[in-house]
Amino acid sequence: MNTLRVATYNIHKGVQGMGPARRLEIHNLLHAVEQFDADIVCLQEVRGYHLKLQQRFRHGPLAWPALAQADYLSPEGYEAIYRTNAYTRHGEHGNALLSRWPVVGARQHDVSDHRFEQRGLLHVQVQLEERLVHVVVVHLGLIHASRQRQVARLGQFIAAEVPADAPLVVAGDFNDWEARLHRPMAELGLHTFQGVRLATFPSRMPLLHLDRIYTRGLQLVSAQVPHGRAWARMSDHLPLIAELALP
């Protein structure tokens, strides 16, 4: 195996719209994830449950799935790993990873910077034939100073948990509106496409490169962001899909 296909997608909890116009998109997202044909899918804003929305969308052929969202979105033959980041009044949400390859380890690391935003890193070890690849799914905070501190804590976590010679992918929603995190990520040995901005937000008129895939020990070969009305309806973010060359 010479290449690894990785996708990252903030699914906005599987629901779009506001008030009476709110609609369930999780069933469309199921088909979207299948279309990625990715070895690894990193997801943010994934729900394990939400009692109020489960009640609202309880009827009809496209009702709220009986499974937690990560399990529901996982294509046949994939393994789903989910960890909660935040608890709310009626439910919770967090990060997930779907893997075509065997998962040999997973853990959650809390990087919440203040009590108004609960954030975490999902670290998963995936066995690709003879290679062990480390993947960290992230969803960083809304305040730049918080994101800086979270990247520093990411660096501490990597130093403690990921061997220096191991292939590493860090993917997710960085909420980095002004692209100010490239330098501190590079100082950790993590790089993305140089000089290329693949805008993913907002999905209806993408202007900002919030969703990213950084790597260490792998080469970024190509990347794409799918566009169109269907993608704009499913989430406020667009997915990012990358091909990575393995060492």
Describe this structure in words.
This protein is α+β, with helices and mostly antiparallel strands and 247 residues long. The protein has a single domain (3-245), classed as Deoxyribonuclease I, Chain A. The protein contains 6 helices and 13 strands. A 6-stranded mixed sheet has the order 5-6-4-1-13-12. Strands 7-8-9-10-11 form a 5-stranded mixed sheet, with no helix packed on it. Strands 2-3 form a two-stranded antiparallel ribbon. Strand 2 (15-16) and strand 3 (23-24) form a beta hairpin. The longest helix has 18 residues, at 144-161. It is globular, with a radius of gyration of 17 Å. The mean pLDDT is 95.
Cα(first) to Cα(last) distance is 10 Å
Task: Give the rounded overall mean pLDDT.
Answer: 95
Report the C-alpha radius of gyration, rounded.
17 Å
CATH architecture, please? 4-Layer Sandwich
* Count of helical regions: 6
Shape designation: globular
CATH class division:
Alpha Beta
Strands of the biggest beta sheet: in what spatial order?
Answer: 5-6-4-1-13-12
- The CATH homologous superfamily corresponds to Endonuclease/exonuclease/phosphatase
Helices and strands in order:
Blueprint: E1 3-10, E2 15-16, E3 23-24, H1 26-36, E4 40-46, H2 51-56, H3 69-73, E5 79-87, E6 92-99, E7 103-110, E8 120-128, E9 131-139, H4 144-161, E10 168-173, H5 182-187, E11 211-216, E12 219-224, H6 229-234, E13 240-245
Parallel strand pairs: 1-4, 9-10
Antiparallel strand pairs: 1-13, 2-3, 4-6, 5-6, 7-8, 8-9, 10-11, 12-13
What's the quick description here?
This protein has 247 residues and is α+β, with helices and mostly antiparallel strands. The chain contains 6 helices and 13 strands. The protein has one domain: Endonuclease/exonuclease/phosphatase (Deoxyribonuclease I, Chain A).
